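Q: What would this chain look like folded?
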Amino acid sequence: MHLVANKVPPVIQQEVSQKDFEASIERAVDFLIPADPKSVVLAAKQGKPLPQALPTSKPVAQIRALAQRLAGDNAKPSKSSFWSKLVRKPS
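A: My prediction, written as structure tokens:
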């Protein structure tokens, strides 16, 4: 089981510290996906998913780390997207 904290605000804006939160649930957070509204808005304006619009953003880095953990260490990224395989024109 993995505990993921999504849309985590900067430390100065947090109402409860990570340490206090983890103590209250008696478990460590495995992944912190930071809140990044500017990046989300920019991706939406471009009409692209966040990983495609801003592949080096902090949220994307954490999402990729989570995906890698869930897929396993030996998983390799696909050269073509899932959707392109579905809509591929027959040869």
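The chain has one domain: 4-86.
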